[in-house]
């Protein structure tokens, strides 16, 4: 009888240990302080049955002669107090967030529609149209194009039909937004490696936030992601990035404060390859574009990563509220690294929605994403027609 009691006690202890181990496996991020620890992934790749399905039974330990029924264990959980969020998919976000462009709508769309609806358009009216477009940062070349095309359509405009006017304006705005540009994000995993994305831009433009939001977009679309906190100058930036990742179960690789950003970026990509994730997103330090040394360092980050893997996407984050100044900044970045796409943030905070047009025209680089608020899912893939419709409003 004593023997049976001892055996049952051993089984209970073994079960408790088993539960503890499995729950522990759900922990979120392992820091890579010295390059020796391997971060663990908390969102296993779909189809990885072993990783996604925890063992359902624990064999009894040392109880060969005692019959104990198999025990069902709960699946791995995030750390106590944490619940992984499930972000919405990216499709249709711009339409859902269109009201965020309210300030641009009232100054651009409504302003233009009011003038165009006048019965007979005079030279002054056309000047007003021109001024409205320029004030919204559409840029001189695109403004000239839009005004010329609207003028040739003056017969249609003379009808005064509000719906027709609106449609005409949307068409003309869409045409200067580069509807045929390739805006796909290179975040698809290649056969044997993850996609690698570098996020660059000046301080405060919204790089870290954008990295976090893009990670959410990818998770929402069913991908596995790893974040690299290569902004080693500002410890808070790495913390901030880690927090973004934690919310959706995405691990972050980070280095010691003040460490070499290129080495953290390298470690992140290496870890992402070993962990077989779909995409590695690397946040870089906000650097003053006027400082040549810092720009050189950005080039170094990219070169070092390229020793390990091609960089598929370099996203330049620009603050839309800085207007034309942002375009000047952007040029310096494009000289340091080959930028493949622009993320225009804070479009919710400006009446100058036309900046999308000038940024693209002057840089020849497509705007791929737009930031429309501080909320976690306020980042949308850029779609020219939906954007033009949102600008015109109504
Ligand atoms: N309204 C609004 N705020 C935004 C948007 N994107 C980012 N922000 C805010 O901009 C501020 C700066 O964002 P960060 O992501 O810290 O900027 P950063 O470029 O990483 O800055 P550094 O780490 O200093 O280089 C934060 O308060 C963000 O919430 C946006 O689309 N709309």
TrEMBL record:
Main location: membrane
Residues spanning the membrane: 6-24
Keywords: Cell membrane, Cytoplasm, GTP-binding, Hydrolase, Membrane, Nucleotide-binding, Receptor, Transmembrane, Transmembrane helix
Cellular component terms per the entry's GO annotation: cytoplasm; plasma membrane
Residues annotated to bind GTP: 201-208, 283-287, 345-348
Residues in SRP54-type proteins GTP-binding domain copies: 366-379
Superkingdom classification of source: Bacteria
Region of interest (Disordered), ranges: 33-64
Biased amino acid composition, Low complexity: 52-64
Family designation: Belongs to the GTP-binding SRP family. FtsY subfamily.
Subunit annotation: Part of the signal recognition particle protein translocation system, which is composed of SRP and FtsY.
PANTHER family referenced in this protein's UniProt entry, alphabetically: SIGNAL RECOGNITION PARTICLE RECEPTOR SUBUNIT ALPHA
Protein name as annotated: Signal recognition particle receptor FtsY
Provenance organism: Klenkia taihuensis
């Amino acid at each position: 009888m004593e023997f049976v009691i001892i055996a049952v006690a051993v089984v209970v202890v073994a079960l408790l240990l088993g539960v503890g181990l499995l729950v522990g496996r759900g922990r979120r991020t392992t820091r890579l302080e010295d390059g020796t620890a391997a971060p663990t992934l908390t969102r296993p790749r779909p189809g990885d049955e072993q990783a996604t399905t925890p063992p359902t039974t624990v064999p009894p330990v040392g109880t060969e002669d005692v019959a104990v029924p198999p025990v069902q264990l709960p699946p791995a959980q995030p750390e106590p107090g944490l619940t992984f969020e499930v972000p919405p998919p990216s499709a249709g976000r711009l339409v859902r967030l269109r009201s965020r462009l309210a300030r641009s709508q009232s100054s651009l769309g409504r302003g233009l529609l009011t003038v165009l609806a006048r019965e007979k358009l005079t030279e002054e009216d056309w000047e007003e149209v021109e001024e409205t477009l320029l004030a919204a940062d559409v840029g001189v070349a695109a403004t000239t194009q839009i005004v010329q095309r609207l003028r040739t359509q003056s017969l249609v405009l003379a009808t005064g039909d509000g719906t027709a006017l609106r449609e005409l304006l949307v068409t003309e705005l869409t045409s200067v937004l580069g509807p045929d540009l390739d805006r796909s994000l290179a975040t698809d995993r290649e056969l044997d490696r993850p996609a690698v994305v570098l996020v660059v831009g000046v301080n405060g433009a919204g790089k870290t936030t954008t990295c976090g939001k893009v990670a959410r977009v990818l998770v929402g679309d069913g991908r596995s992601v790893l974040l690299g906190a290569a902004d080693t100058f500002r410890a808070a930036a790495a913390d901030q990035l880690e927090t973004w990742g934690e919310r959706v179960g995405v691990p972050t690789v980070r280095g010691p404060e003040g460490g070499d950003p290129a080495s953290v970026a390298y470690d992140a990509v290496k870890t992402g390859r070993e962990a077989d994730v779909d995409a590695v997103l690397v946040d870089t330090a906000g650097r003053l574009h006027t400082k040549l040394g810092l720009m050189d360092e950005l080039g170094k980050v990219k070169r070092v990563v390229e020793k390990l893997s091609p960089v598929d996407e370099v996203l330049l984050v620009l603050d839309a509220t800085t207007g034309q100044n942002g375009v000047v900044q952007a040029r310096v970045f494009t000289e340091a690294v080959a930028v493949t796409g622009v993320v225009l943030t804070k479009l919710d905070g400006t009446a100058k929605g036309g900046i999308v047009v000038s940024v693209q025209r002057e840089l020849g680089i497509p705007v791929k994403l737009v930031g429309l608020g501080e909320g976690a899912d306020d980042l949308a893939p850029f779609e020219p027609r939906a954007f033009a419709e949102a600008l015109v409003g109504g």
